[in-house]
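Appendix C reproduces, verbatim, an entry submitted by the partner laboratory led by Prof. M.T., so that reviewers can inspect both the input and the predicted structure.
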Amino acid sequence: MAGLALLRTIIAAISLASATFADTGTGIEERQASDPCAAIANQTYVVPSKVIACLSSFAFNPTLRDNIVDVVSKTLNFHTSTNYQLFAPPPFLDVHVDIQAELKRIKGSSYSSDFALHKDVSPQGRLTSPYALSIANLHPVKRLFDGHCVYINYCYDSLFVTYLPFPLVNLNSGWQLWSQNVYIAPESFDVVSKEFAPFLDQWQTMAGYNFTKYAGARVIAIDDLDPWWAVDQSAAVIGSYQGKSSRQNSFFSSYIRAATEWSYRMGDFAARSLPPTKDYVKMTVIPVNSTRWETIKVPFISRITTPAFTNGQDLWNKNCVAKATTNGVDYFAGSRNVTSGKNIAESKEESETPDAPVIELVDPSPPKFAEPIAPEDRKHPISAFIDVTALTDISLPPTLNPSAPVSGGGTAQFYMQGKVGIFALGSFSTGAGYDA
């Protein structure tokens, strides 16, 4: 259990690694003459190809690459997953990844852009299907399949979250409900029409059809392949859970219990932390009350989550340049000077103006990735489960809300659905709105 005390620092150190040298002015000086980031500035919704053009305009810098590899490699040497997952016993044979060898390979590689470097801390190129390649912008750290060991680059991950209008579900069907098939969630239009109301008409115009037509449709193929192949390809790279079935379930839409209400989770198919490699996905479906197969192109749309920016330089400065909370020091060690990284006492002793105010570091984990940590817990070693896809406040449709629990309280509650009893075990984090 001693390793758990290191997990919070590991997460912080890994997620901050890419920004350590960003204040040297690297990564931006060789930008393209025409700024693709300026083309999408002040827009809430853009197509993924334009997001990729913007993110790919930041120049590759070997110093940043070496720093990322150095910090991540040294940090992971303290993490049990690094060695354990290499020799994980059956049935966990798919979790084997030599992450140190992967990092060594990355350190010896050159890239077309800083964004390409970020994507290569990933299995991209090792999966062959069109769908797999579109989702493979995921890190080898994720292939440890450990939700407490996470690499996040605030410059890219969930800076733009990319959505499809059709979250998927796995439903029983056929004779005596013995068959399981993939469907577009029956509630998909209800969810999308509320969450994306300002953009809905334009989104449907891009698609060339009304989304209501396909709510509840059975999915025959995704990019010309069996939908279960897409599920398994996602499970191969999505991370978070050691058990494959949990990673498969993450592909589908679900729900999240917040402090006082239920929220809707779009699932890994319909919500991406990085823009996919194309602007649409091809789906073959059978609409409700029909037996005819239809092949449709479903457009992705990327929604901005970062503060407003005017051009690439502005975007880089606001999200990629090192700040007080991204200077590589141990922020659990006490208050630090925002520029030197030294303890306050050391800074004041050396400063020509010892009475000048010093800004204290704050917990850098952004609330868009994980529920906020209560102030009284911030200096305690904890195990934090973080997802690279930003948390959302999409409302769960009222028709899907469960009835009041029959018993329990805090993190543990019991529900009844007909003759089926359901035990819901929530977060033990006090900052997540539950009783610890």
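The chain is about 25% helix and 15% strand. Additional entries are available on request from the coordinating office.
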